Amino acid sequence: MTSDPILPVMLTGLLLSIFICPWTWADETIDYVPVLDTGSLTGHEILDGMDDTSPFGNSAQGYLITLADEIGARVAGTDKEEEARDYIISTLKQSGYEVSVQPFTVTTQEDETYESANIITTKQGENDATIIVGAHYDSVDDGDGADDNAGSVAILLELAQRLVNEETPYTIQFVAFGSEEEDLDGSRYFVSTITPSARKNLVGMINLDGLLAGDNLYLYGDTGVFIRDCILSTASVHDIFLETRTARELDYEDGSHCDCADYAPFEQRGIPFAYLEATNWDIGDEDGWTQVDLMYGDEGVIRHTPYDTLQYLDRVFPGRIDERLEILTMLLYESLTGCIMPGDE
Ligand SMILES: [Zn+2]
Known about the structure:
Helix content is 32%, strand content 17%. The chain has 345 residues and is α/β, with parallel strands linked by helices.
């Protein structure tokens, strides 16, 4: 694909904060001190200080450009996945966090093995009860993995940056999963390491996947799940429309369960989840796979196609990427700082 390099988001005044503020660790994480040369960062200008007035989504734009446009496709087990990993680690450290890396080995269906890793950082809240915010940073080989899933990682990174010195009711653990596209390997491994005591502290998991391209925003999860209900009520306060679907409504037509994103291993462990995705359940086979009008992408599909690039998305949907980064970063920030379970006030 060729297209004009009109990035949606060539930015002025990207501000990154640099804080020194170590947080405590969940006991299942692994201490890791990467050796990184921050001088090698190319994604955006690193400036001292924090501008509280910088618009929501502003930093996320810079992270997105680096992940999708400069690094590009990030196939699990490749140097590109590792490059993305180093960039995410370095960005979180510059925001003032200590970062843990949780390596794991994947054996494919063809019996080949490769290494990947999850990236974990924790922001201590007023309460040890913990909300996990997760997004996978690997991609398939087609396109740049802009929608799937650099946009979500960019939102996660801005959220972490904004929340580092904020008081939050709950402890927030940010997890960037490796190797989602093979078989949810990163999230499966992460969930397997959650100890019974850590499990008791878990309020739930918010999964972010495929948030840029699709026509409509969906919130998946069951009524009564605290983090799902809290995101929904926060959205309505801010006039953001989220279509909702229950966990059951994600199942395939034959009734088999949709183990199709990183929320699934959490759900199987009985951990409440909320999952945000942009797609369009009303078109194509009405199964959520078709994301946009059939005249765009590969008959309406962007993810896992050569059309999943910032250039293409910005050309056919001008302004959509910027708007998504802005409203989703704001929505999640407001939810994570504002929502409190009855009894925890
Ligand atoms: Zn994905």
